[in-house]
Amino acid sequence: MDRLYYDVVSVADAELIIASTDQGLAFVGSPNAGLEEIQKFYPTYELVQDSGLNKSVSQRLNSYFQGQNVLEEIQCDIHGTDFQESVWSALRNVPYGTTQTYQQIADAIGKPKAARAVGTAIGRNPVLMVVPCHRIVSKNKGGSGYRGGLEMKKRLLELER
């Protein structure tokens, strides 16, 4: 059975569950969500509490919430369909402090008619903030869904300005 090593970290007045494999970060949870959330993404994995493996990620998340652009350097170990992985890769190329639309991501991955499918893939992103789905907005620049909640999305976008 595959293992995920998780820890509960306090950042920005919230508790986040983060989890890693031996190859990299696999999960960043929604604020104040429990282990149930991680189990939705990794139902067959054994969860092992381990703060040591996640220490550098925890430190980077705290630095991020102090306004530092330090999340790009975190190695991730996330898996999905080829389409999902192409979307997640494109998200990591959206620069800190900017936003893009679902359509722009669809164009970036060479699937210009797939903006709605991009939204679905973004909703399956297991690594909030590090794979910056909060930077994706609807074409009218209004709020769109975010697993961490719209208040958190607004907070992250304001933090990056």
UniProtKB/TrEMBL annotation:
UniProt keyword list: DNA damage, DNA repair, Methyltransferase, Transferase
Superkingdom: Bacteria
GO molecular function term, any single one: methylated-DNA-[protein]-cysteine S-methyltransferase activity
EC supergroup of this enzyme: transferase
GO biological process: DNA repair; methylation
Domain named Methylated-DNA-[protein]-cysteine S-methyltransferase DNA binding: residues: 82-161
Coiled coil residues, start to end: none
Reactions it catalyzes: a 4-O-methyl-thymidine in DNA + L-cysteinyl-[protein] = a thymidine in DNA + S-methyl-L-cysteinyl-[protein]; a 6-O-methyl-2'-deoxyguanosine in DNA + L-cysteinyl-[protein] = S-methyl-L-cysteinyl-[protein] + a 2'-deoxyguanosine in DNA
EC number in record: 2.1.1.63
InterPro entries per the UniProt record, alphabetical: MethylDNA_cys_MeTrfase_AS (IPR001497), MethylDNA_cys_MeTrfase_DNA-bd (IPR014048), MethylDNA_cys_MeTrfase_DNAb (IPR036217), MGMT_N_sf (IPR036631), WH-like_DNA-bd_sf (IPR036388)
Family: Belongs to the MGMT family.
Protein name: methylated-DNA--[protein]-cysteine S-methyltransferase
Organism (species): Weissella minor
Lineage of origin: Bacteria, Bacillati, Bacillota, Bacilli, Lactobacillales
